[in-house]
Amino acid sequence: NRAAAQRLPARAAESQGRLAALSPQHARIAEDLDAAHAAEDAARAAWTMLPPLDAARDRARECGAAARVAATNEALAKAALAEGEALCQRLREEASLLATRHADAERREAILAPQRDAQAREAVEACEALAIAEAAFAAVPDLARLRQDVDAARRLAGEARGEEAALRAALGSLTQEATRLRDRHEILALDAENWRARAGAADMRLAELHRRASSAAEECASLAELPEAAAAQRAAAARLLAEAEARHTACAEALAIADTNVRDGQLARRAADAAFAQAREALLRGDAARESADAAAAAVSARIAERLGEGATLPAPPEELSDAAEERARRKVERLIREREEMGPVNLLAEAEMAEAEARIAAITAEREEIGTAVAKLRGSIGHLNREGRDRLRTIFDRVDREFRKLFERLFGGGRAHLALVGSDDPLEAGLEIFAEPPGKKLSTLSLLSGGEQALTALSLIFAVFRCNPAPVCVLDEVDAPLDDANVERLCDLLDAMAAESGTRFLIVTHHPLTMARMHRLYGVTMQERGVSRLLSVDLGVAVAMAEA
């Protein structure tokens, strides 16, 4: 124990030496921190000078992150160094305290050792005196004096034994103190070992900081080269933009000229089309006039032949006419013209038009008969479809009504409701009315119910129709918005039952937490970065299994 106590000052000196050895490392850490800050400032300056390039921004972010990591590691190293300094200070204080206690123990032992030896010698002498006294008592007849000597010797022996017990107790306390000092020394040894491990970790952190500082310097160098490349790319892009603008201007001018030519061509084409239409109309009018003249000539020839006979010939006009004959002929012509005008116009194409009209009448009559037959067939088909539609509508109406009654009672937890056709006896022309009687209320129409009751009633009708004609997928858009929590639970229970019965997958757009908690998978849109949306999906079954595991 004394040797261990003597080694404590040496270990304290060793700890002070290690602390002194760590001081240059602390200086190097500070220098590395300054270098990292300088690299970070240079990287930030280079980043602000760079053009808006995604790659440069990413590398600048990485450089900033590396600088922040370096700063964090430097802070950790500072904390570790401070902790080491505090530990060394505590070691020095404990070593000083142990040295003081050891010196006190040595002084107490040095003081008590002569007393213990003297008391031991006195005890031995007392025992010898007691033996001599007893021998003398046996030889000498003065019993009273001898008894006094014996009592005195016994008192001296008791006092010697008490002092010996006190010395033994003091020795035991010194032994315990030495044991405690030895245990404390072992604890200090473990602390020193931990400190050496922390020093090794600090060295590793310093090496990592040096490596990251070098990588940050390389990144800064590479970032310093980016502005020149970006300037070259920008100049090339400016040249390409100027060339593109020149080509765009030339193309725009050519396009304007082409548009002008197209408009001129369109105007010329429209003018030519108008002239062609006018010429065609004039040609048609000429053909019609020619045909009319030919028909008139043929009619005149026919009337002449009819009146005068087939072989009749017109008399030749006289070579010379007197004025009176000419006047008579003129009056006759005028009279004949008046008579013709009084007779009115004569349709020379009446026979042909009559034949054409008769043909058209026959065709129209045939078409009328065909249309009548088709109408009769169509009316028969419509009647058949109406009958079949009424039957099917009655059947599906009864099925939907039954499902509606069941679902209404299930969603409301009681009550009754039914569907009714109103307005006409014909199901195809009748309207649909919903009569509902929630628990605790009177039977009324849908319009007299509250908002939540209307929503549940409408959902009952929708799901009733869906159960009559199920589909593999059903999309519901915020159907739980007007419902409270209890009704949302009932709606989710109904969806689970329908999904289990028909195998339908329900896609629900919702913001209600209870509905989201009852789903099997959630899909959501998040925006981790400004302006960038990302779709996320969570399988709640897998999440629950992972949480339970």
Automatic annotation (TrEMBL):
What GO molecular function terms would the record report?
ATP binding; DNA binding
For the keyword Acetylation, the answer is: no
Q: Where in the cell is it found?
A: Cytoplasm
* Main location (coarse class): cytoplasm
- Every copy of the RecF/RecN/SMC N-terminal domain together lies at 240-533
Recite the UniProt keywords alphabetically. Answer: ATP-binding, Coiled coil, Cytoplasm, DNA-binding, Nucleotide-binding
Q: Which GO terms describe its cellular component?
A: cytoplasm
Q: Which SUPFAM superfamilies match?
A: P-loop containing nucleoside triphosphate hydrolases
Q: Name one Pfam family in it.
A: SMC_N
- Which PANTHER family does this one have? STRUCTURAL MAINTENANCE OF CHROMOSOMES PROTEIN 3
> What protein name applies here?
AAA family ATPase
- Which organism encodes this protein? Plastoroseomonas arctica
